[in-house]
């Protein structure tokens, strides 16, 4: 490698590979089971599996659950308010990513 070249970085997105059960998600996030069940019914979390015992959540779900807990506690939002805030935050992140791809900062 030449002195002015940067080494290539390799990595994996671990969030996509993590698989958590409902109990594990509750333990990792500190959210009660009933709250997670509500967030699934509101569409904020999308587990794989047909029934709660079969549900598997990704690392993205863990991140969203922790954020949902903070929004609920800090801003005293109800489940539809948390869902709206998460959707808006997702949209902001997507727009920022698009700006970066377009060369804007």
From TrEMBL:
Protein name (database record): Chaperone modulatory protein CbpM
Organism from which the protein derives: Pigmentiphaga litoralis
């Amino acid at each position: 490698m030449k002195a002015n070249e940067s080494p290539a970085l390799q990595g994996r997105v671990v969030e996509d590979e993590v698989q958590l059960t409902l109990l594990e998600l509750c333990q990792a996030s500190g959210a009660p089971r009933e709250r997670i069940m509500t967030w699934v019914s509101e569409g904020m979390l999308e587990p794989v599996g047909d029934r709660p015992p079969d549900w598997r959540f990704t690392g993205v779900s863990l991140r969203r659950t922790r954020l949902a807990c903070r929004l609920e506690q800090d801003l005293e939002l109800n489940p539809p308010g948390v869902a709206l805030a998460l959707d808006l935050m997702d949209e902001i992140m997507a727009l920022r990513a698009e700006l970066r791809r377009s060369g804007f900062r």
